[in-house]
TrEMBL record:
GO MF term set: phosphoric diester hydrolase activity
Pfam family, one: HD_5
Stretches assigned to the HD-GYP domain: 216-411
Protein name in the entry: HD-GYP domain-containing protein
Keyword ATP-binding found: no
Biological classification of the source: Bacteria, Pseudomonadati, Pseudomonadota, Alphaproteobacteria, Rhodospirillales
Transmembrane segments: 13-35, 179-202
PANTHER family reported for this sequence: CYCLIC DI-GMP PHOSPHODIESTERASE TM_0186-RELATED (PTHR45228), CYCLIC DI-GMP PHOSPHODIESTERASE VC_1348-RELATED (PTHR45228:SF5)
Cell membrane is among the record's keywords: no
InterPro entries the record matches: Cyclic_di-GMP/3'3'-cGAMP_PDE, HD/PDEase_dom, HD_GYP_dom
Top-rank taxon: Bacteria
Annotated keywords: Membrane, Transmembrane, Transmembrane helix
Length: 432
């Protein structure tokens, strides 16, 4: 792995992990903040309910109109006591019987002035053992409208209902909020710290994964090279044809700015273009003379056999363009499906030029090699019939230079040049 690629991976991992950590911290921090403030309110409600229930022990029995004066006196004494001895206390309250009839009340107008108008005609009477509340935030003050049941000493029998407005002092509210903020900040810091600790672990795992992927990809590319070479040697006793034709195709693909993904498919297809010849008998494949009509029909089946091979492997399916269409011609007179023009895949149009050029300029069992200039002239005459002019013209412009560099060479050096290109398009792309 190059130093530049490694830096890019570290940078991308740091950015993505950091962004993910910030998003998670923000989401979790928001959830914790909401939960903490809900918990704070619930804690104050529990205090209010507990104070209200201490009133149950002082009330006369039963709670009805007959005891209403005594209930009023107990309620007023309770409120006075709470206001004198507690920071947080009820500003006012009302007591209702089991039939929801008001029996006593001390709800000063100052309450409405402090927290806004309260609809005292709208009452919520919870089920026995439960409480109801509604918070009212006014500046730095919290007022809780609380309704809870009044039970006897055993706590089992519901005597009536208590409704009051409970005031939480600014000091206590601020203290509780600070505690909630501290908890939220600790959660956010914990998430960010965990993210930071995960970075080197994930980076190391990523390095191992990339290393394994590179080894697997190199093995796959090597397997393609080995299979293509085996086929080429069976056909002509040398595998140099496969290297040359693939290099020609690659240089032409670069000249017309073919996208890297298409180049990778072209490499696979170039090496495996004749994989279907494994099914062709030696008597036909190695025949030194021209094939008769029946033999040629058998030879053409190597295309379908090749497609069967690459279709079996997911990683090779994109080689089908070259394997299946490298004998098509631009005017539609090729085989096996008679495709024409741009209906022929671009990789097949590129490879057809590289394949024919190497065939013309290379020695075969049935012919001597042709000079590059003569081969170029023959191919130029097939411009628009056999070959796509938009692809052939760039190739002709560079053909003689390519031939001097690649053509006629044996295996030595060609395999190294091709592996370098394959590394660039396959392995470096894996790390991008």
């Amino acid at each position: 792995m190059s130093l530049l690629v490694a830096r890019n991976i570290r940078r991308q991992l740091a950015v993505r992990l950091g962004l993910g950590g910030v998003i998670i911290a923000a989401a979790l921090g928001g959830a914790v903040s909401w939960y903490e403030f809900e918990r704070i309110e619930d804690a104050f409600v529990d205090e209010a309910v507990e104070q209200a229930r201490t009133l149950s022990l002082r009330l006369p029995s039963p709670l009805d109109k007959s005891t209403s004066p005594r209930i009023q006196a107990v309620l007023e004494a309770f409120l006075d006591e709470r206001q004198q001895n507690h920071w947080d206390h009820f500003l006012g309250a009302e007591i209702y019987g089991l039939d929801n009839t008001a029996l006593a009340g001390a709800m000063p107008k100052e309450i409405d002035e402090a927290i806004g108008a309260i609809d005292h005609s709208d009452h919520v009477f919870p089920r026995p053992g439960q409480s109801w509340y509604a918070p009212h935030h006014v500046g730095d003050r919290l007022y809780l409208r609380v309704v809870t049941g009044l039970a006897d000493a055993s706590g089992k029998t519901n005597l009536g209902y208590f409704e009051g407005v409970y005031h939480v002092t600014p000091a206590r509210l601020t203290e509780a909020r600070h505690a909630g903020f501290r908890t939220t900040i600790l959660v956010i810091l914990a998430v960010l710290a965990t993210t930071g600790l995960l970075y080197p672990i994930i980076l190391q795992l990523n390095r191992r994964l990339v290393k394994s992927a590179r080894e697997l990809l190199a093995a796959n590319v090597g397997a393609i090279e080995m299979l293509g070479n085996a086929i080429a040697k069976r056909d002509s006793d040398t595998n140099s044809h496969n290297y040359r034709v693939t290099l020609y195709a690659l240089r032409l693909a670069e000249a017309i700015a073919l996208p890297p993904a298409s180049v990778r498919s072209l490499i696979k297809g170039a090496f495996l273009h004749d994989v279907g010849k494994l099914a062709i008998p030696d008597s036909i494949l190695l025949k030194p003379g021209k094939l008769d009509e029946m033999e040629f029909e058998i030879m053409k089946t190597h295309v379908s056999h090749g497609l069967d091979v690459v279709a079996r492997f997911e990683w090779l399916k994109d080689a089908a363009d070259v394997v299946g269409c490298h004998h098509e011609k631009f005017d539609g007179t090729g085989y096996t499906t008679g495709l024409a023009g741009e209906d022929i895949p671009i990789n097949a149009r590129i490879f057809a030029i590289a394949d024919v050029f190497d065939a013309l300029t290379s020695r075969r069992p049935y012919k001597a090699p042709m000079p590059a200039t003569e081969a170029i002239a023959i191919m130029a005459s097939a411009r628009g019939t056999h070959f796509d002019p938009s692809v052939l013209d760039p190739f002709i412009a560079m053909a003689e230079d390519l031939y001097r560099e690649i053509g006629g060479h044996a295996d030595m050096g060609l395999d190294h040049a091709l592996r370098q290109l394959a590394t660039h398009y396959f392995l470096d792309a894996l790390e991008a």
